[in-house]
């Protein structure tokens, strides 16, 4: 082993050793904390000497002491200010629709009323106008799981399925009929986003929109319920949920509701509503959960009133499986209540079954979910059957029910027997390319969008499943 | 603050938990009471109507809970003791009743096995 300093250095100090010597640097490279107990044990630090307070009382007695209380008192640890009730949830559920760090996309155009029904616009990206954003936000169309917070302005891609759905809505409204659709498809393919597009289309074309953002809130026994007197078999109202829905509905549809007038008087309401009052005023009478159900019934009767001009209505619901099973509510005789016996849900299912229809035409659209959905064998079977029946003749075999399975539900089958099933698949390559160009223009995809990249991400995303493509392209940490 | 059967509950307390705080009223009975008055399982005391609170008090006052239920248990133990049964004697001594060994671990028996049984 060589000496760290040679003899000559001792005689004449060299400039390299003088100002900075190596051993001085060594302690600086060590992290000021240790992550493992073992490491900490290797290099024990001397305990910091705390200056003793001369005024502090010295223990007057050492040795064993009698413990007066049974248990040791826990130390009070100051953990800072705890969040207020509901604060954590609000943070978790917050929706931010813009990101100032993302680049504005110069070629992006704002969506106009007819844009999404035009097949020439397939594989184009449109931004949502500010007023529309407010309406969609008011009816809770945006979800916290969707990645709106990455882009400058919320924008949507027009796909083949979009044009198909909007075309059906337009056609039904033109013929004063009610289109009855169920959107289904694999996970992350954009079923909820298709609902959002349908709502955007409806708002832009001055339809009235009612939206149930999450069907599970209705049936998981998390909101108040009460039997409706005089119904046989007994139906149940959900006043608190309906109150929230009416308030959102009023905020989102303010412009249309102020131009739509009541057809009959409503003396049963707390404020007397006469004929030819705007529906907006009717909605404003709902202030307390107590009277909310009466207001909702009056509102529903007004929306369904015949022989008066009514705009087309869109009724959408996300998470269809939740309203196709027994709910978690119990009747006074302790039996589970079927979801279709909840009065609000029944309005939706009656429309979906085609037993009732909107007087001015419109659409009822339900979306299934793949991430939070109970298994409903009847629904899966009927949707598969409907899909096979709608396929070109002989293209698919109609699935048959399992004769040895008892869990089928007749009520569910009767509701879904005649709906149109729209399968939302992965995007095509031109659609994927257009979307990726939008990502690149926003500065989020830092690559040249060429055939190779599009094909790579399209394949990584399970043949164009948009959510998976987003994961593969935007959510990865590549710097 | 909501009063049920003379007990004061905080407005944030779950109705289900409040009901289950009464002696001899468990999950089964509380679920049935909730269903009977159409209260959803996640309801809090603060959200109850005054009418429902009165109805709950009336319902609970007809049930064998709290001291009535304790009395039944105590009577059973006393009967065993009075007839001189082994179980009665073991209860009176605060020892395990059903043949457990007593070398160690008889805290539960010490706590519960009494003539005037509380819990």
From TrEMBL, chain A:
Belongs to the mitochondrion-specific ribosomal protein mS29 family. It comes from Canariomyces notabilis. One of its GO terms (molecular function) is structural constituent of ribosome. PANTHER family: MITOCHONDRIAL 28S RIBOSOMAL PROTEIN S29, SMALL RIBOSOMAL SUBUNIT PROTEIN MS29. It comes from the Eukaryota. It is found in: Mitochondrion. The lineage of its organism: Eukaryota, Fungi, Dikarya, Ascomycota, Pezizomycotina. Residues 14-60 are annotated as: Disordered. This is Small ribosomal subunit protein mS29. GO terms for biological process: mitochondrial translation. GO terms for cellular component: mitochondrial small ribosomal subunit. Keywords: Mitochondrion, Ribonucleoprotein, Ribosomal protein, Transit peptide. It holds the Pfam family DAP3.
UniProtKB/TrEMBL annotation, chain B:
GO terms for biological process: translation. The keyword Repressor does not apply. Keywords: Ribonucleoprotein, Ribosomal protein. It comes from the Eukaryota. GO terms for molecular function: RNA binding; structural constituent of ribosome. InterPro entries: Rbsml_uS13_C, Ribosomal_uS13, Ribosomal_uS13-like_H2TH, Ribosomal_uS13_CS. GO terms for cellular component: mitochondrion; small ribosomal subunit. The keyword RNA-binding does not apply. PANTHER family: 30S RIBOSOMAL PROTEIN S13/40S RIBOSOMAL PROTEIN S18 (PTHR10871), SMALL RIBOSOMAL SUBUNIT PROTEIN US13M (PTHR10871:SF1). Belongs to the universal ribosomal protein uS13 family. This is Ribosomal protein S13. It comes from Canariomyces notabilis. The lineage of its organism: Eukaryota, Fungi, Dikarya, Ascomycota, Pezizomycotina.
């Amino acid at each position: 082993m060589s000496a760290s300093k040679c003899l000559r250095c001792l005689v004449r100090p060299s400039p390299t050793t003088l100002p900075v010597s190596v051993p001085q640097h060594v302690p600086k490279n060590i992290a000021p904390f240790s992550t493992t107990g073992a490491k900490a044990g290797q290099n024990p630090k001397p305990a910091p000497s705390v200056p003793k307070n001369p005024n502090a009382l010295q223990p007057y007695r050492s040795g064993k002491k009698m413990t007066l209380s049974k248990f040791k008192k826990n130390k009070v640890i100051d953990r800072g200010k705890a969040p207020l009730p509901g604060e954590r949830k609000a943070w978790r559920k917050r929706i931010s629709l813009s990101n100032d760090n993302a680049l504005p996309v110069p070629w992006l155009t704002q969506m106009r009323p007819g844009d999404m029904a035009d097949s020439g616009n397939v594989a184009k990206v449109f931004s949502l106008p500010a007023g529309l954003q407010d309406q969609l936000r008011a009816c809770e169309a945006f979800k916290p799981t969707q990645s709106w917070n990455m882009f400058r302005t919320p924008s949507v891609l027009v796909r083949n399925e979009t044009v198909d759905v909007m075309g059906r809505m337009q056609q039904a409204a033109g013929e004063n009929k009610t289109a009855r659709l169920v959107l289904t498809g694999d996970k992350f393919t954009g079923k909820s986003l298709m609902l959002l597009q349908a709502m955007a289309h409806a708002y832009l074309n001055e339809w009235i929109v009612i939206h149930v953002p999450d069907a599970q809130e209705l049936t998981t026994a998390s909101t108040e319920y009460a039997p409706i007197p005089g119904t046989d078999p007994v139906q149940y109202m959900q006043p608190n949920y309906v109150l929230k829905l009416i308030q959102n509905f009023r905020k989102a549809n303010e412009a249309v509701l102020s131009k739509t007038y009541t057809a009959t008087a409503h003396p049963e309401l707390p404020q007397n509503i006469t004929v030819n009052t705007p529906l907006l005023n009717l909605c404003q009478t709902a202030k307390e959960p107590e009277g909310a159900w009466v207001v909702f019934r009056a509102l529903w009767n007004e929306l369904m009133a015949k022989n008066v001009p009514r705009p087309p209505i869109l009724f959408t619901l996300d998470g269809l499986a939740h309203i196709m099973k027994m709910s978690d509510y119990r009747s006074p005789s302790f039996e589970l209540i079927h979801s279709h016996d909840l009065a609000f849900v029944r309005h939706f299912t009656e429309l979906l079954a085609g037993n009732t229809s909107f007087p001015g035409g419109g659409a009822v659209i339900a979306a299934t979910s793949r991430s939070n959905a109970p298994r409903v064998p009847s629904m899966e079977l009927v949707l598969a059957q409907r899909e096979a029946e709608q396929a070109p003749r002989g293209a698919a075999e109609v699935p048959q029910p399992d004769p040895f399975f008892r869990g089928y539900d007749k009520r569910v089958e009767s509701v879904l027997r005649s709906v149109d099933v729209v399968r939302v698949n992965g995007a095509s390559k031109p659609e994927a390319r257009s979307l990726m160009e939008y990502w690149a223009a926003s500065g989020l995809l830092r690559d040249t969008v060429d055939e190779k990249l599009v094909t790579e991400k399209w394949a990584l995303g399970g043949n164009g499943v948009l959510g998976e493509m987003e994961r593969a392209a935007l959510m990865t940490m590549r710097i | 603050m909501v009063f049920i059967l003379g007990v004061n509950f905080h407005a944030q307390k779950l109705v289900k938990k409040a009901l289950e705080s009464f002696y001899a009223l468990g999950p089964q009975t509380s679920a049935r009471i909730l269903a009977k008055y159409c209260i959803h399982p996640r309801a809090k005391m603060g959200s109850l109507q005054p009418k429902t609170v009165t109805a709950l008090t009336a319902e609970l006052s007809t049930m064998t809970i709290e001291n009535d239920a304790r009395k039944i248990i105590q009577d059973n133990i006393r009967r065993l003791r009075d007839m001189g049964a082994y179980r009665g004697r073991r209860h009176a001594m605060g020892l395990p009743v059903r043949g457990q060994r007593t070398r160690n671990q008889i805290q539960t028996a010490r706590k519960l096995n009494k003539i005037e049984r509380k819990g």
